[in-house]
Amino acid sequence: MSLDADVTRPLLFEIAWEVANKVGGIYTVIKSKAPVTCNEYDDRYCLIGPLSYKTAPLEVEETKPSSAAMRSAIDSLQSAGIKTLFGRWLIEGSPYVLLLDVGSASSRMGEWKADLWNIAAVPSPSDDQETNQAIMFGYLVTWFLGEFVAAQDRGLQSRPSSDLIGDDASQKRPVVIAHFHEWQAGVALILIRKRYLNLATVFTTHATLLGRYLCAGDVDFYNNLKFFDVDAEAGKRGIYHRYCIERAAAHCADVFTTVSHITAYEAEWLLKRKPDGVLPNGLNVIKFSAIHEFQNRHAIAKEKIHEFVRGHFYGHYNFNLDNTLYFFTAGRYEFRNKGVDMFIESLARLNARLKELESDITVVAFIIMPAATHSFTVDALKGQAVMKQLRETVNEIQNSVGHRIFESAAKGEIPDSKILMDEEEIVMLKRRIYALRRDSLPPVVTHNMADDARDPILNQIRQVKLFNFASDRVKVIFHPEFLSSNNPLLAIDYEDFVRGCHLGVFPSYYEPWGYTPAECTVMGVPSITTNLSGFGCFMSEMISVPSDYGIYIVDRRLKSVEESVNQLADHMVEFCKKTRRQRINQRNRTERLSDVLDWKRMGQEYIKARWVAIRRKYPALVAKHDEECGENSDDDGKSDFQYGYESDANPAGMQREDLSSLRYHQKVPRPPSMPGSPRLRGEMIEDEVTAHLFSSEDDKDMNVSALMSELRALGLRGTAEDFVPPSNGSSTPK
């Protein structure tokens, strides 16, 4: 490349199978990150993905490319019969997006598969449709990028504009960065390296293929990671060809990254290249922000869950909803990887522990994971229908009684309470109450499962005997469908459901990042995760004592399965013992961690990765740039990730900076405020002034005389017998 090229205003292409095409979690990553990237690159940023005729009309507003290089590259594809769609993605930031119709290249598939075998020895079975699509997508992306770079080299830039090409021909040609996500986009990296295309590349794996398959089986994955025969293991599972693509992509990229340190360790041994850096996933915190009202939103959402629980349980038996906590786990149906096996076992132990403590707390545990079903169960539908009828009847009677009270008061009379309800209304109310009565146990699952007898979740629930008996302190509800406000049973969106719950439990065995606990955090909901999840590792590094902020981390790496299950049960018991005030205090602390997970912070790691790719691809250009800026390009033996780069979105964008200040900031210290006060005998201490005197950690060893002295100094009265630490788990949940 000419030394006149510009490294300070690069063009960025981001390529993934889930661009404007929601399949899994990478869609969330790219969509939520887009506003930050658009702010950094403006119109020098374009995403590339497959063209889905089902979703594209809803996701993309078609426009004409105004840059000559972009037009030339797209015209080249279209003249060869490849269908494309270029426009603005209808999300925050409105980035450019180019969608390529993989199906329109199907006639070339045989030729391309043969070429891939010749240049990289990557096999491709004819019956693997996903791999076939990945190969065609990779060749189309490479075709486009090759045409685009060639058009730049031919000097086809347009007149000055803010478009993707950016500047007019009199200015330096900007370098091009291509950032690829996951193996489905990895074929292009192999071709870019083989064809010597003039652009810098970054590859991010969000999870390794082989790691996910190995963890799904009964394998001690992390302790044996160094000893796996990766080729043989991939072959046994029928994914050798996919594994070859993923491994080749990791080795062909200028910069190889993962989303967490635990995945970096995994990738080093399975893909045989040590990642150059970690790009943690962030969230668009503004979307979840409810700074002054998230406690109220919790109460509103919790009432919606109450409505469902009444319909599901009342009539079978009753329990006090004011003394009920809602726990949940959610995600893809990966029984072992998501830790559902550990969650159910720990619920059984929590049930036994709460019975031992004679606690009046009831825990309703939801498992939200989509599975094959036929329909809703009759019992579940009937319970909600009968409860709805009761609600409508009570509302009618309420209106009638209100009218009678008003008429009596208007006449100057006090209404007789005995005649407020007439005989017909009493009969109708009795009929509704009798209709509620059911002799069976509340159903554990809300749907008729397609394969009830072999469903792993139901089988383990049967094994631990969590059948929702009236005597159980822990009730279980398996909802094998994603939540929606249109659901006739549990009519609530997932975000509102999370806000209404008290604790999210995600004891994953394989979780490269973990968006579910992260979403809990930004919504102020405490959660339990593990040190085998990327989120858990990240929070361990960021926070001195994560549990102070409602992030409980179970050790699944160094402890045995039995010890891990007990630790998870201990965390849940500890949470059940908290008072209302302690939970409110903890939710406030949890919500304050939102900024730690914001893309405005996490995006810094992407900035550094892209700059390292430029430095590795164009060392002479970077050296010249450093010389012009008066900087020393000698790294003093430091690795590439010892320096970072900010784009021109910041006036200081042309300055390199020490990465140590950006990598992970100083740990979040323990909160200065104490947890909420313990229970006084028969009541709560509600005076805010006294809240700082008590700590749940000190309940067992309270210095009563010291507390009494402070109370007297505050003008408050009490006796030593008044102080009863919460030992039996009784409390009134918020």
From TrEMBL:
Which pathway or pathways does this protein act in?
A: Glycan biosynthesis; glycogen biosynthesis
Question: Tell me, what is an example of a GO biological process annotation in this record?
Answer: glycogen biosynthetic process
Q: Where are the transmembrane segments?
A: none
Top enzyme class, one word, equals transferase
- Give the EC number(s) listed in the UniProt record: 2.4.1.11
> What is an example of a Pfam family matching this protein?
Glycogen_syn
Which family does this protein fall into? Belongs to the glycosyltransferase 3 family.
Q: Which GO cellular component term is one of those annotated?
A: cytoplasm
Which reaction does this chain catalyze? [(1->4)-alpha-D-glucosyl](n) + UDP-alpha-D-glucose = [(1->4)-alpha-D-glucosyl](n+1) + UDP + H(+)
Enumerate the UniProt keywords alphabetically: Glycogen biosynthesis, Glycosyltransferase, Transferase
This chain's protein is named Glycogen [starch] synthase
Question: What does UniProt list as this organism's lineage?
Answer: Eukaryota, Fungi, Fungi incertae sedis, Chytridiomycota, Chytridiomycota incertae sedis
